[in-house]
Amino acid sequence: MPNAQCPLPHSSTPPLLIPSEVTTIYWYNGKLIQSQTIELTIDDPALLYGATVFTTLRVYGNSLDHRLTNWQAHCDRLKFSLKTFGWLLPDEVRLRQGAELIMAHFPVLRITVFPDGREWIVGRFLPKDLMDKQNNGIVSSLSSLAYSRSLPTHKTGNYLSAWLARNRAQKLDAQEAILVDALGNWLETSTGNLWGWRDGCWWTPPVSAGILPGVMRDQLIDWLQNQQQVKEEPWTPELVKEFDAIAYCNSVVEIVPIHTVIQPTGSLQYNPKHPCFQQLRGFLLAL
């Protein structure tokens, strides 16, 4: 990244340095801030209860309007949760302004909105080993019911259960955790939605099972429905044994195969090189 400066909009404040020269840069409540800390009051519900909603997106083509960035879908998901909870909507112009400033330095944005409409946008880089994971797959472990997510159809700041599940998975040398319901059905991973290939068709758990309706998931479902190659069915312990290949998706990693699932009763193996993945990546390019 070139040695340049990023000035604050409409301000005489001295310009902020780019991330290569500072530890942290983020957007908060209408301001671009250079700091490792954020200031919250001690009674802020976000601090006390995780009372925020957020979405994480990957910027394609250096544009929020790129069809794969899907800015509007991410904003719509935020609005859906905010309206459901009766919280204030953020200023849309300010939200986009902050996103455009942060995306100049990072390809991945996490956009958080507080109950009173404050916006907080941080950036990060793509995982260094993402291409290897996409090509060769990962190991995942089956989580316990104790780590089920609260308010699963909303992406709230209370993400503790999924975070704990993933940490536990990493202690087993797995990179992801698969969350389950009371019947042992597979729901989603700690960071994405599940996909399985069987009988010439893609299968994914339905939202009604208690999962987050991911933005990437919705994009893929819309495409696959036109191909008549998608089924939304619960992933029972019996069904998961019948898949030839499985993967998880989210807006950052796109599609990542899972070659091994560690279970209390033994591991399940899947083919991370199955031709179905080439087809799915082709769908992604055509979106």
What would you note in describing this structure?
This protein folds into two domains: 5-124, D-amino Acid Aminotransferase, Chain A, domain 1; 130-286, Alpha-Beta Barrel (D-amino Acid Aminotransferase, Chain A, domain 2), CATH 3.20.10. The protein is α+β, with helices and mostly antiparallel strands. Mean pLDDT is 91; it is low at 1-22. It has helices at 45-49, 71-85, 92-103, 130-136, 160-171, 215-227, 275-286, and strands at 5-6, 16-17, 25-28, 31-34, 53-58, 108-113, 119-124, 138-142, 176-180, 186-189, 193-198, 201-204, 230-232, 245-250, 254-263, 266-269. Helices cover 26% and strands 27% of the residues. It has seven helices and 16 strands. The strands form three sheets. Strands 8, 9, 10, 11, 12, 13, 14, 15 and 16 form a nine-stranded mixed β-sheet that branches. It has a five-stranded antiparallel β-sheet with strand order 4-3-7-6-5, covered by helices on one side.
The CATH class of the largest domain is Alpha Beta
Are there runs of 5+ residues with pLDDT below 50, and where? 1-22
Helix/sheet category: alpha+beta
- The count of DSSP E runs of length 2 or more, i.e. the number of strands, is 16
Q: What is the subunit organization of this protein?
A: single chain
Layout of helices and strands, plus pairs?
Layout: E1 5-6, E2 16-17, E3 25-28, E4 31-34, H1 45-49, E5 53-58, H2 71-85, H3 92-103, E6 108-113, E7 119-124, H4 130-136, E8 138-142, H5 160-171, E9 176-180, E10 186-189, E11 193-198, E12 201-204, H6 215-227, E13 230-232, E14 245-250, E15 254-263, E16 266-269, H7 275-286
Parallel strand pairs: 8-9, 8-15, 12-13
Antiparallel strand pairs: 1-2, 3-4, 3-7, 5-6, 6-7, 9-10, 11-12, 11-14, 14-15, 15-16
